[in-house]
Amino acid sequence: MATKILVSQPKPQTEKSPYFDIAEKYGVEMVFRPFIKVEPMSAKDFRQQKVSIPEHTAIVFTSRHAIDHFFTLCKDLRVNIDETMKYFCVSEQVALYIQKYVQYRKRKNFHPESGKLVDLIPIMQKHKTEKYFVPLSSVHNDDLKNMLDAAKLQHSEAVMYYTVSNDFGPDEPFDYNMIVFFSPEGIYSLMKNFPDFKQGDIAIACLGSKTIKAAEDAGLRIDMQPTPELRSVPAMIEDYIKKHQKD
Questions:
Q1: Which CATH code of 3.40.50.10090, 3.40.50.1100, 3.30.420.10, 3.30.565.10 fits the domain covering 4-35+168-246?
Q2: Which of 133, 164, 182, 228 is the most exposed place for a label (fewest CB within 10 A)?
Q3: What single DSSP character describes residue 224?
Q4: Residue 185 neighbours by CB distance under 10 Å
Q5: In what order do the strands lie in the sheet with 29-32?
Q6: pLDDT tens figures, 199-239
Q7: Which pLDDT tens digit goes with each residue over 173-182?
Q8: pTM confidence score
Q9: What are phi and psi of 215, to 5 degrees?
Q10: How far is residue 91 CA from its own chain's centroid?
Q11: Which DSSP helix (H) or strand (E) runs through 128?
């Protein structure tokens, strides 16, 4: 029976993916299935938060999901985004994604080279007169809010989309040799879907310190996490397969 690996992310859109290369090289089955999914918020639900987007002069985006749901909800709310609006993004990839909705202007878009949230704050401090708005998921932490408070920047936050468990069907087989998690929400979803989950010989790989902590808190055994030698998820998977096939 072939090794079956569950990668809790959407299937790569390009055929040139290291996941597919590994599957072909070692003859393993790679299944892509997110444990969580993102759903839109209604204009009615957003209005209940009593936040006025036009009162702000800058938007802070931490993900492409945030961009999609911000502009979609603004359209539903009939909120026109002023051309003078500035955008502060966690990374260049997120910043460039904005051009899907508005013309990209470098003088209106800002991001740290590192792609780290902590490095975005000094950039925002150079624009301390701005009134920042942060679109959030229903599942979020207060790290960014706390950073903005500490930097004494004017800001407000509001939930603009939902992150929910992508539940498994009752007849859906769960016969994996290895599961890869990318977020704490993935761990929470696993335990919600399978409250009596017994790990046994199932190998678990986790990416990120918060994901690792969530797995440990759930009583799971973490078999793989990034190391200086194995920095990426495909590298961890390949290392597991090599050791497993030797066994």
A1: 3.40.50.10090
A2: 228
A3: B
A4: 22
A5: 29-32, 4-7, 178-181, 203-206
A6: 999 999 999 888 999 999 999 999 999 888 888 889 999 99
A7: 889 999 999 9
A8: 0.73
A9: -65, -45
A10: 13
A11: none
